[in-house]
Design goal:
Helix 7 links the parallel strand 6 and strand 7. The protein contains 11 helices and 8 strands. Bound molecules: adenosine-5'-triphosphate (ATP) and magnesium ion (MG).
Length: 264
């Protein structure tokens, strides 16, 4: 049964979508079966894998609103990358916030939609929008682990308090086992300030931080434009290696989580 990850930060442009695509591709490359769920109305993940979001019907929106009629297996596509599947999103998803709020169990719709396909994958990654609303709550309720990409920049820690509060609420109200992992992204080794933030994050989250740090490089923007994740676009680049290293940490962490799950 797949370990489910929610890749979440309400701050925009911190590398959520890039992390889903690159980590997913790095795991798929090693033979793991991976499902990527584009859960952002802006459809960044669908686009960065080389697809036009307008070309899909149904999409995650339909499964979220009515998973009996539009079961997720009708929405999943096999990407051009072996072992990597995608649930595309479209702009309709923006309307889901308003439609779900007030419904009974509004925060569990994604979990219900994922349940029937969970056995078919080793890893599922949900790419959240940059907000803390209905969609992000659904992702956090569904997940075993929330990965929080954090830019190693001034004020990076500020938004984490608000996200931490939501995570605590989710643990209390419906997903007590939810774990958090911090991923340092877009790191600029040249600045002292960036290095200070790296250390600060290590101090604040000693048990929750990934050792791998993703450095800032223009290669990511190039690979997004090409519609190919960096592990395939620039196979032997430092950036590709970083996401491969991260995938090794994720595999170890997943193994521990599976053992804990069996013990429960
Ligand atoms: N390590 C990195 N170095 C440089 N550029 C990066 C890095 N990671 C991602 N990028 C680029 O930064 C931009 C934002 O990244 P991405 O879309 O992954 O962020 P996001 O958190 O998903 O944004 P949003 O909140 O808008 O969905 C993209 O153009 C991406 O190619
Ligand atoms: Mg994104």
């Amino acid at each position: 049964m797949a370990i489910i990850y929610s890749v979440t930060n309400q701050k925009g442009g911190v590398g959520k979508t890039t992390t889903c695509a690159c980590l997913g591709a790095a795991l798929a490359e090693q033979g793991y079966k991976v499902l990527l769920v584009d859960f952002d109305p802006q459809s960044g993940l669908t686009v960065c894998l080389g697809y036009d979001p307008a070309s899909f019907n149904p999409t995650i929106y339909d499964s979220l609103i009515n998973c009996e009629q539009y079961s997720l297996d009708k929405v999943i596509i096999n990407t051009k990358i072996q072992n990597l599947s995608l649930v595309p999103s479209s702009l309709d998803l923006a309307g889901a916030e308003g439609e779900l709020i007030g419904e009974i169990g509004w925060d569990r719709n994604l979990k219900d939609a994922l349940a029937p396909v969970r056995n078919e994958y080793d890893f599922i990654f949900i790419d959240c929008p940059p907000s803390l609303g209905v969609l992000t709550t659904n992702a956090l309720i569904s997940a075993d682990i929330v990965i929080v990409p954090v830019q190693t920049e001034y004020l990076a820690l500020r938004g984490l308090k608000q996200l931490g509060d939501i995570i605590r609420k989710v643990r209390k109200k419906g997903n007590p086992e939810l774990k958090m992992r911090i991923l340092r992204t877009m790191h600029d080794v040249r600045t002292l300030h960036s290095r200070e933030v790296v250390e600060e994050l290590e101090k604040v989250f000693p048990d929750e931080i990934f050792k791998t740090i993703i450095r800032r490089t223009v290669k990511f923007a190039d690979s997004s434009l090409a519609g190919v994740p960096i592990v395939l676009y620039a196979k032997s680049s430092e950036a590709a290696e970083a996401y491969r290293n991260l995938s090794k940490e994720v595999i170890e962490d997943a193994k521990k989580t599976i053992i804990e799950r069996q013990g429960r």
